[in-house]
Amino acid sequence: MDESVSARPALTFFFPAYNEEANIERTVARAIDDVGPLAASLEVLAIDDGSTDRTPQLADELAAADPRVRVVHQPNRGYGGALQAGFANSRGELIAFSDGDLQFDLAELRRLLDRLADASHPVDAVIGYRIKRRDPAHRLVIAKTYNAIVSVLFGLRVRDIDCAMKVFRRHVFDGLRLDSDGPFLSAELLIKLNARGVRMDQVGVTHYPRTAGQNTGASFLKIMRTFRDIFRLRWALWTDRERTLGSWPGS
Questions:
Q1: Are 83 and 183 in contact (CB under 8 A)?
Q2: Which pTM value belongs to this model?
């Protein structure tokens, strides 16, 4: 282990898992093999979001076989609720997450961790963006429109809001209030961190097509819920900014 890695604080890597029986074993194995060498101490946290297939059983077996692996089971709360559970249950001083669908090369978390460790330009969060997004055309159109709307309404200058490769220092969550249980959670988090003045940077990562499991993020109902959450947050920031952002040092 090189000196820069051994000096890093403990890292929690977590991922939401909803009906990912086809992927969860490989996701955990890749986390241990690819993320493990990037930190002196690693916790792999699987968030079982009310799965109805064999995901809970497989996750528990993986945790029983390796003390670095831990599982949180919860009733289905949606993607945002799974992320909230991950942030709340992570024990590391650094918190990273990705999805459980193997569309990212977890070894590329090194790029984000190296940027976080660059003392010449300090930041407290590093946001990945997909250099070339490998999703169906309709999802690309939805994502581009969504990013543009969030940028205009909140002044958030992030290239790829929903990219599931992000790393944070734990303290950015101190007193932070997160409300969305749906896909808007990623945007809500970045909007609020930006409004709090948290220093962030962006790093490009590789994206791969999904090869197993089913993507459920672009349903009509979830899109409507996302727009509801967008306008709720915009109104809340106008009418009660302090309560909406929560308390943090210097507020």
A1: no
A2: 0.90
Quote the CA–CA distance of 99 and 228 in Å, as a whole number: 24
> Whole-angstrom Cα distance, residue 218 to residue 143?
10
Structure-token pair, residue 52: 């109805």
Residues 6+ apart with CB under 8 A from 160: 127, 128, 129, 130, 133, 143, 147, 202
User: What are residue 129's DSSP bridge partners?
Assistant: 204
At 249 the pLDDT is 62
What are the two backbone dihedrals, phi and then psi, of residue 200, each rounded to the nearest 5 degrees?
Answer: -130, 155
User: What residue has token string 């709340």?
Assistant: 88
pLDDT of residue 209: 85
Q: In this predicted structure, what is the pLDDT of residue 3?
A: 60
Residue 218 and residue 141 in contact, taking contact as beta carbons nearer than 8 Å = no
Question: Which pLDDT does position 124 carry in this prediction?
Answer: 98
Domains of the chain as residue ranges with CATH: 3-245 (3.90.550.10)
Say which residues have a Cβ less than 8 Å from residue 233's Cβ, sequence separation at least 6.
Answer: 154, 179, 180, 184, 188, 191, 244
Q: Which H or E run contains 78?
A: helix 78-89
Instruction: Please state the three-class secondary structure of 227-251 as a single string.
Output: HHHHHHHHHHHHHCHHHHHCCCCCC
Alpha carbon distance, N-terminus to C-terminus of the chain: 39
**What does the pLDDT look like over 136-159, one tens digit per residue?**
888 888 889 999 999 999 999 999
Q: Which residues of the chain are under the pLDDT cut of 50? A: none
Judged by DSSP in three states, 42 sits in: strand
Q: Parallel, antiparallel, or unpaired for β 200-205 and 125-130? A: parallel
